[in-house]
Amino acid sequence: MRTMGQRLHVLVSLVLTVICAIPVAVQTPAVDGPQLLKDLETLSADEMEGRLPGTPGAAKARAYILRRYKEAGIQPIGDSYERPFAFRGRGDSADRSGVNLVGVVRGTRDPGRFIVLTAHFDHLGVRNGEIFNGADDNASGVAALLAVASRLSASKPAHSVVFAALDAEETGLNGARAFLADPPVPREGIVMNVNLDMVARDAKNILFASGTFHYPFLKAYLKDVARPPVVLRLGHDAPNVKGEDDWTRDSDHYPFHQAGIPFIYFGVEDEAQHHKATDDAETVTKEFFVGAANTILAAVRSFDANLEAIRARR
After folding, report:
1. Counting runs of H as helices and runs of E as strands, what totals does the chain give?
2. C or N: which end of the chain has fewer Cβ atoms within 10 Å?
3. Res 90: pLDDT
C-alpha cells in the first residue's frame, strides 16, 4: 500500500507530465516587411541570372546572402559560413560544385539542441535566352529565413537555430543531402527541420504546413501561429489524397525525413508560375508574403518553446 507521501509524489508527477504536454504559446514581434521584400527582389533580379549552381549569378547570390547573414546576426559555425560540396544532378556524368551557406543563432538555455531552418537559394538559370528568376522558388524562402534570423538575433531563442541556405536543390536536393552527410553540428542534437520553399505567392492567402501526417504530434504547435492575412492549412504530406499532391519528397525537408528527423515544410500551391520565366518579384502577393514570414517566425518560436516535448516524441 502506498503511503500518503507516495500518492502525493505520483500525483505531482502526473500533473507535471500533463503541464509539459501542453504547448507553450509565444508572442513575437513582426518581421521587417520592407527588408523582406527587398531581399526577395534582390535575389530574383536579372543580374543574379537565375542562380544556377556553379555560375557567376549563383556566386553573386551567395555574396548577397553572406552579407545579409552578418547583418541579421547569424554567426558562422567554425571558420566560415560556406560549406562547399560536390554533387551529380539528374543526368550529370561528372561532378559539379555547390556551396551551402550555414550559420547559427545560439540558444540561451540549451544551445546544444537545434532547429535547422532551411531554404534553397539555387534556381534554373538562363534557358533559351530567358532568365528564370525564381522569385517564389525560392528567393522567397531565403528572404523569409533572413527575416526570421533577424528577429531571433534580437530576441534570442531558448535553443539554437541553424540557418542553412542550401544550393543545388533543383537538381535533386543535393544541398540538403550534403548538409546531413557532413553536419555542421552534432547530428544527435538536431531535433527538427523547418523548410521554406515557395512562400510568397497565393491569391487566396493560403500557406501550407506539410509534415504532420508523418509527425502528428507537431500539429499542436501550429495551432495558433497563423498571422494575417495567412490562412494556414495542413496537408500535402499523405499519399493517395484526392486532389492533393504529396510534397513529402519534393524539397529539402525530405533528406531530413529520411534520416528520421521530424520536419515541417512551409509552401504554396504555385503551379501557374512554378519553373516558369514569369516567376518574378513583380508577381508575388506582397501582403501575403509578409504574413507568411510572420507565420513562419511564430511557428519557429512555438517549436523552440516546446522543443523538449518535440524531442521526447521523436
Report:
1. 8, 11
2. N
3. 82
User: Could you list the residue range(s) of the whole structural domain that residue 303 is in?
Assistant: 27-88+96-313
Report how far residue 200's alpha carbon sits from residue 140's, in angstroms, rounded to the nearest whole number. 6
**18 in a domain, yes or no?**
no
**pLDDT tens track for 180-221:** 999 999 999 999 999 999 999 999 999 999 999 999 999 999
Residue at 14 is within a domain: no
**Longest alpha-carbon distance in the chain:** 83
Is the pTM above the cut of 0.90? yes
- Give the rounded distance of the alpha carbon of 128 from its chain centre: 31
CATH code at position 260: 3.40.630.10
* DSSP assigned state of 219: G
Handedness of CA 270, 272, 276, 280 (dihedral sign): negative
> Strand ranges (DSSP E) for 44-129?
75-76, 82-87, 96-105, 110-120, 125-127
Distances (CA, A) of 215 to 195, 249, 258: 15, 15, 13
- Residues 6 or more apart whose Cβ sits within 8 Å of residue 57: 47, 48, 49, 50, 51, 125
CB of 72 within 8 A of CB of 148? no
Please indicate, yes or no, if residue 251 is contained in any of the structural domains.
yes
Distance, in Å, from the CA atom of 46 to the CA atom of 51, rounded to the nearest integer, reads 10
**6-24: pLDDT as tens digits:** 444 444 444 444 444 556 6
14: Cβ–Cβ under 8 A, 6 or more apart, which residues? none
For residue 230, give the nearest of 293, 151, 137 by alpha carbon: 293
Tell me how many domains the chain contains: 1
203 within a domain of the structure (yes/no): yes
Find cell 544556377 and name the residue. 52
Q: Which residue has the higher pLDDT, 24 or 129?
A: 129
Cell representation of residue 245: 499532391
